[in-house]
């Protein structure tokens, strides 16, 4: 009989296939050094790509962050002192995007603790000056019609950068980040090695979301208008696609996600109402439902179901996992759409979906 510590490679791989979480997989690789050499550092099974919900606050230890796994409904804690005094912009491709008090943008892999620095906020288009000594008016911005105004560092820190999405898992020559920024929700990009953000020219504005899809950047605005630009060269021009607009609610928030080779748009419906928490009352927007649209040759076609897929929405780059490739997700979660609610006034900082990987 073969000792369990000397299991053959094919049997090790088969056992690894039945592990539910990335945490279990890491522990399995760590049993013996030889197992760590045999089993790939990053597993290829679909359920390891399922994001965890990062809980960005711990009541007793400011360095701990919890990660809720939807498959086994457990919370795993990681020591992440790198996140102290950081604002969470979102997540993309397994990286957390953060902004510190000095308005430095950083990427952090919460599992490996790897960090990358993006060009600073002061290098965004439209910011033409920064004077840290001019308290309350540190930033000088160029507005439409060549008007100039100032903003405090606190306001820029709190509201200037809306979202950042990444093109790939790890830095390389074709690595690119696209940001939605400013009060008019414009687009800018930076490539690996750049020291500034460059504007993407477009006739559209008020973008809600953007995504890398089919080798291009797609961006959707508040009206459901869709623009696209290539990433082969410098993506300085976004072309507005002549598509029929969908019927949307005024207070909608739009997201885009790829599923089974199709591009979907998810409309988050919200309603302004009285909200209560532990006897406290305030007024704000609450999510009350969702509408789904699929892109076809004419425009956004409304659909009624996700055809066996599960979507994760929020401050993250939206993700879709097929239940065919991950039946455990369908069997255990019994949901087709997981979302956080960034408009909830009682939750701050807001939780973020993030994929744990070792790249």
Any key phrases for this structure?
359 residues, mainly beta, Neuraminidase, 2 domains, 4-stranded antiparallel beta sheet, 5 helices, 26 strands, 10% helix, globular, KIB1-4_b-propeller, F-box_BR-signaling, F-box protein SKIP23-like
Topology diagram in text:
Elements: H1 9-17, H2 22-29, H3 33-38, E1 52-55, E2 64-69, E3 74-79, E4 87-92, E5 95-99, E6 105-108, E7 115-117, E8 127-130, E9 139-142, E10 148-151, H4 153-159, E11 161-166, E12 176-181, E13 186-191, E14 198-199, E15 207-213, E16 216-221, E17 226-230, E18 239-240, E19 253-259, E20 262-277, E21 280-295, E22 300-303, E23 309-313, E24 319-322, H5 327-333, E25 337-339, E26 352-354
Parallel strand pairs: 23-25
Antiparallel strand pairs: 1-2, 1-26, 2-3, 4-5, 5-6, 6-7, 8-9, 9-10, 11-12, 12-13, 13-14, 15-16, 16-17, 17-18, 19-20, 20-21, 21-22, 23-24
């Amino acid at each position: 009989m073969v000792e369990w510590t000397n299991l053959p490679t094919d049997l090790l791989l088969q056992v690894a296939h039945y592990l539910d979480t990335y945490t279990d997989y890491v522990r399995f690789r760590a049993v013996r050094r030889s197992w760590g050499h045999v089993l790939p550092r990053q597993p290829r099974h679909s359920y390891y790509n399922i994001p965890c919900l990062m809980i960005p606050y711990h009541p007793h230890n400011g360095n701990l962050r919890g990660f809720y796994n939807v498959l086994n409904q457990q919370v795993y804690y990681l020591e992440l002192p790198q996140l102290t005094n950081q604002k969470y912009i979102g997540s993309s491709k397994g990286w957390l995007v953060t902004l510190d008090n000095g308005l430095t943008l950083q990427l952090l892999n919460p599992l490996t603790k790897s960090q990358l620095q993006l060009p600073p906020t002061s290098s965004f288009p439209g910011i033409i000056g920064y004077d840290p000594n001019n308290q309350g008016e540190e930033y000088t911005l160029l507005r439409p019609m060549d008007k100039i105004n100032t903003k405090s560092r606190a306001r820029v820190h709190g509201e200037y950068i809306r979202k950042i999405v990444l093109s790939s898992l790890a830095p390389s020559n074709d690595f690119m980040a696209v940001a939605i920024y400013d009060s008019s929700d414009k687009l800018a990009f930076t490539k690996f090695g750049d020291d500034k953000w460059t504007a993407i020219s477009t006739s559209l504005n008020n973008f809600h979301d953007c995504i890398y899809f089919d080798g291009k950047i797609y961006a959707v605005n508040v009206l459901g208008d869709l623009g696209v630009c290539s990433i082969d060269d410098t993506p300085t021009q976004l072309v507005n696609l002549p598509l029929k607009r969908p019927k949307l609610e005024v207070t909608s928030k739009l997201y885009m996600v790829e599923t089974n080779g199709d591009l979907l748009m998810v409309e988050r419906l919200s309603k302004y109402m009285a909200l209560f928490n532990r006897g406290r009352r305030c007024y704000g927007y609450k999510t009350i439902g969702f509408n789904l649209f699929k892109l076809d040759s004419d425009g956004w076609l409304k659909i009624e179901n996700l055809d066996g897929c599960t979507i994760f929405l929020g401050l993250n780059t939206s993700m879709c996992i097929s239940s065919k490739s991950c039946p455990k997700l369908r069997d255990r979660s019994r949901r087709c759409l997981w979302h956080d609610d960034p408009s909830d006034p009682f939750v701050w900082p807001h939780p973020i979906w993030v994929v744990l990987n070792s790249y």
